[in-house]
Amino acid sequence: QVQLVESGGGLVQAGGSLRLSCAASGAIGSIKAMGWYRQAPGKQRELVAAITSDGSTNEADSVKGRFTISRDNTKNTIYLQMNSLKPEDTAVYYCKAEAITRLGRDYYWGQGTQVTVSS
Question: Among 5, 2, 1, which residue's Cα sits nearest to residue 94?
Fold first, then answer.
């Protein structure tokens, strides 16, 4: 089992910045990749950015150049640095971990953190 705890959301004006954190605990050695997803009201949950265990990253086109995903292995934590925020970035942001088990893959989600960008 993997537990994920997010923090860092809040209210910010357009053009501002926020940094989200996601701390993993439990069977962290089984984690293959982690990522950030977001879900706005009335919309499907979408991938924002992901990072693999070997450090490879990818970001959604909508956030490229503005958001950066990173990790601190000593703290078992990933981060999402969000700059130049826009009102359309308003959503609940979720952390997700993909873990490899003997039976295949398991996926874990955090509880979510609200990000609200005012115009």
Answer: 5
Instruction: Identify the DSSP state of 89.
Output: G
- Give the 3-state secondary structure of residue 57: strand
Residues 6+ apart with CB under 8 A from 92: 38, 39, 40, 112, 113, 114, 115
List the end-to-end C-alpha distance of the chain, in Å, as a whole number: 40
Residue 54 CB-half CA count within 13 A: 1
Element spanning 118, H or E? strand 113-118
Is residue 80 within 8 Å of 69, Cβ to Cβ? yes
Contact (Cβ atoms closer than 8 angstroms) between residue 119 and residue 14: yes
**Pairwise CA distance, residues 117 & 99, whole Å:** 32
For residue 33, list its beta bridge partners: 52, 98
- Consecutive sets of 10 residues in the chain, 119 residues long: mean pLDDT of each? 95 98 92 96 97 94 97 94 98 97 91 97
Question: Dihedrals φ, ψ of 48, to 5°?
Answer: -100, -50
